Amino acid sequence: MPDRRARTSTSPGPGVRRGSLRISPRPGSANQNARASRSPTVASPLARSVQVNRKGSRPVVPRIPVIPTHGGAVDWVQLGPVGWSAAVLCGVSLAVLLDGALARHGVSLGPAGWITLTRGVLACGVAGLTAESYVGGDHVALVVAAATIGLCLDAVDGRVARRTGTETPLGARFDMEVDAFLIAVLSVYVAPTVGWWVLAIGALRYAYVAVTWVVRWLRRPLPPRYSAKVVAAIQGIVLTVAASGLPPPALTRLALAVALALLVESFARDVRTLWRLRAEGLPSVGRAPAGALVTPGALTAVAVAGLWLALVMPDPADGLAADDLLRIPLEGLVLVAAALVLPPRPGRWAAAGFGALAGALVVLRVLDSGFAVVLDRPFDPLGDWSYLGSGVGVLGDSIGDLGARVAAVAAVLLVGLVVVGLALAAARVARVAADHRRGAVRGVVALGTAWAVCAVASIHVGGGAPVAAAGATGLAVDTVDRVRTGFADREDFAEEIEADPFADVPAEDLLTGLRGRDVLLVFVESYGRTATRGSSYAPGVQDVLTDGTRRLAAAGYATRSAYLTSPTYGAGSWLAHGTAQSGLWVDSERRYGQLLDSDRLTLTSAFERAGWRTVFDVPANTEDWPEGAAFYGFDTIYDSRNVGYAGPEFGYAPVPDQYTLEHFRREELAPADRPPVFAEIDLISSHHPWTPPPPLVPWDEVGDGSVFHGTTEDAEPVDQEADPTRAQDLYGRSIQYSWETLVSFLETYPDPDRVLIVLGDHEPWSYVSGDPDDGAGRDVPVTVISQDRGVVRRIADWGWHPGLLPPDGAPVWPMSDLRDRVLATFGAGG
User: Fold this and answer.
1) Which of 305, 361, 545, 551 qualifies as a cystine partner to 805, CB 3.0-4.6 A?
2) Domain count across the chain
3) DSSP string spanning 659-719?
4) Which is more confidently placed, 378 or 78?
5) Does residue 2 sit within a domain?
6) d(Cα 135, Cα 39) in Å, to the nearest integer?
């Protein structure tokens, strides 16, 4: 509202958010993103729990876990790096701006000012909680509590100022800015749950101020108006209630709409008043004292604090705690020492470059942490940038293209702010050190001695990190080594691609042992060893596999099972698919892209060369996949758009497994006059996020999928952080569903001239399967199923075990061995 110096306004916070951000986009095509974010999730509307795991898709930045603290006074503040960053940024901005304002006015905070400052700190906390809510943190109680306290204190500071005779224009302005900021933050918190139009409540005041920079007559001060105070208080109260999530959604939206209407009317009334007075000259009012907006000392303190935090920043997945700041960064000491010995101009340029590098390392550390959580590996600077662009597509499916573009621009601006801000901070620290040589020398000597002592004595802070820190240097060295290794691996992998013993095998000698048979390579999403052994959900899966073995044997099928080691973990299905098909170890986006650009013989192209019709059935795809078509060379691809499915979606899966198999049978297996078919079929009902699977229906009733309406499609995916046991149970049930569907399909439609190779692509995420470094591993089951005993005899020397359930002692091959084993065993010399 217009500047009413004697008036205040209040504001609280928004809706409930649950879940976590998991984005896994796709590689070459915009194709495989869309599906993930369209499935209902238990996450904020912005941070939908999306993981795309399809052909051509690539993972991006996954969930950011809640930050654990290392003990002490801040243990109750369970904020992740996003929340901490937002809260600290707001808090530092508050401190710096207030310090500058007090210096310009030549005053200090009075009793009322300290109360307003407390409200400002609470507002910064709400800002951190709001930022955290967009990546999965659920802190509704804290948001509501902080906002409520802020509302109550807003009614106190003005009275204290009047009773103590300490009213000042600066105090009134400070009070008003804190009110406006809290209202803006709370509108951001509520918006994803209620609707983005709620942002207007927080934006109106700032929009008005922006207009006053251009329209001078709007700058006229207005006398206090009681109704305006009431309207401001209503905004805070309604937003706080909306944040609690207690009222019904319809009532919440109505209350917020009424509050917004009152706010617009209040602004309109003020504008009308000022319009009538526009012809009169502006009254001469005392201008704010001239001076710097921020004091030099405060600016230097912010620069030192920002650099210090950037240099000692731990792995975000390990958590940020107050005692992490007790570490001494070696790189900071080197910066100051260099400033003392270098000439002024080179010293400033060197310091700015140092700061920019520190900013880049902060970004890299965050990326490393995200990739480690989702893919159990660090970020690859040479090959993983495509994930970031793909993530925008995934986010667009969740919040709309405009929102995704805004978020992408905001992310780019944030990265730029970090890099440029740290460059300026380092330059300032270097200049101040050069201008105060004696103090800088003493500081470097003292901290350098402390660093050396702590390094020699191996002294650690409470969380286990060494006080003598050099993490930024270590990360830089690791990154350089990673890049160097990546360049070398390009050449090595190119040689591996070319060294193909089957590339020149004549077509008539390929796969002679499978001539006339349909061969189906079936990937079961997230089907890992933990589904069969050593987990809470394994017994249920074991029962289904044991029963399936019995039923298939009764139907005349032979089964042989073992394990393959997947090149990926938790996500990145396309890497596993590429590995199995090409006979190469494809464990990175860089290798995957290199593979797609080659003419490597795959299982698909080998079968196609030998006379099979080749098909891909990828129900997760929502757009064309030209890279896959060019590389694999399949004759036909089925995706979510061209299978005629008219049923509901179930969690991530746009098409349930039963419909996928039935449609494939109708189109490819049922026709009588046809060549044999080789197909890769992806069963994705076990894809994260997991929901109760649909029931199996009689196969002759599947039709166009409408029969699945009214089953389990409305069930929301489980919040894996709030209820990991439930998530594990639903994961196990989804694997059971996929296998029950497959066994039923084979019973219903037997064919002695059909061979299936059924395998998992990777383990599910660690909150289900466990840490791969702590025994979960990367192994996935693999099974050959056929009624043709000749096929089973040919693979006898593989040593695989009978049945669908491989025992603990079953053979374990690298997944990259599968292609060569199939081509060698069933080739002319097999």
Assistant:
1) 545
2) 3
3) HHHHHHIIIIIS-SS---EEEEEEE-TTPSSP-PPPPP--GGG-TTTGGGTTSSTTPPPP-
4) 378
5) no
6) 17
